[in-house]
Amino acid sequence: MPDPFRPVCFGAGRAICYSCAMGGYAEVWKGFLSERRLEFGGHMDPGWQDGHALSASLMIPVDTACLRPRLDPLREALRPLPFVSLHPDHFIHITLLLLGFLVPEPSDTGEISPERLSDVEVRAQRTLADFPAFEVELANLNAFPGAAFVEAHDGGRIGDLRGALSSSCGLKKPSGPPHMTLAYFHAPEGTRAPDELISAIECYRKWPIGKIRVSEVELTLLDLRRDYPEPECLARMPLKGAGQPVSQSAAQQKSRDSLHRASDEPLSLP
Q1: What is the pLDDT of residues 146-178, one digit of tens each?
Q2: Beta-carbon count within 10 A of 199 CB
Q3: Backbone dihedral region for residue 170 (phi beyond 0: left; psi -120 to 50: alpha; all else: beta)
């Protein structure tokens, strides 16, 4: 699901994985301070959507219930800024791989068919069954031009997982540090980041939030026509020793059904 997290080489429209071309978290923050530039982040950006209605991804779900006492101060610090669009709890996640815009017959490298999505599910299940569960330490507020995010410190395990899934599924591994997006910035591209935003983030640059255990990965679809829809889970795939995979139905048929529903509704762009 687009985290926006904008992948530099994700096909049609403007690129959307700021972290892909950058190094670690310190470098991301240093670059943001240097450029002081905002842009319209997130899946509602019509330039990124390029007319598509659905986007598929592999993601790590995050249960925010136990994290909320440490997350809420960050949200409250960002809330007064008019260009900030805060994520509701059900939209919080860590994106592993953006798979593409779901279409019946792909004509672009940024698109994926239901058949290919089903193949990704099968390959991902095999890979995850051999990848041990692990913990991630969530801490520190940071920012890309289009989003505020929380850093994910795990000794490189998410990177390893991305690499394993990319290799087995025949996908390009994204570079740059993993992250949990907390809010999108909805500002015209090139808008200067105000001092109030910089100050709000700097207050929480060193702010432990809590640990999560990564024991499963979800294959999801995101409806790009809605602000913060509940991601549609096609399959839940456990890591090694964490249980059996749960397909919400065959991914291929489920994605076809979603495509059919999307074709019956007009695409509404902001």
Answers
A1: 999 999 999 999 999 999 999 999 999 987 789
A2: 10
A3: left
* Domains of the chain and any CATH numbers: 18-263 (3.90.1140.10)
**High-pLDDT (> 70) share of the chain, %:** 81
The owner of tokens 């509940």 is 230
Q: How many CA atoms lie within 13 A of 226 on its CB side?
A: 12
CA 129/CA 241 separation, integer angstroms = 8
Q: Which residues, at least 6 apart from 69, have a Cβ–Cβ distance to it below 8 Å?
A: none
pTM: 0.84
Report DSSP letters for 50-75, one per residue. Answer: TT--EEEEEEEE---TTTHHHHHHHH
Between CA 52 and CA 87 the distance in angstroms is: 22
Contacts of 230 (CB under 8 A, 6+ apart): 90
The rounded distance, in Å, linking the Cα atoms of 127 and 131 is 7
Short-list 41, 218, 63, 30, CA closest to 138: 63
d(CA 184, CA 187): 9
The helix/strand/coil state of 184 is strand
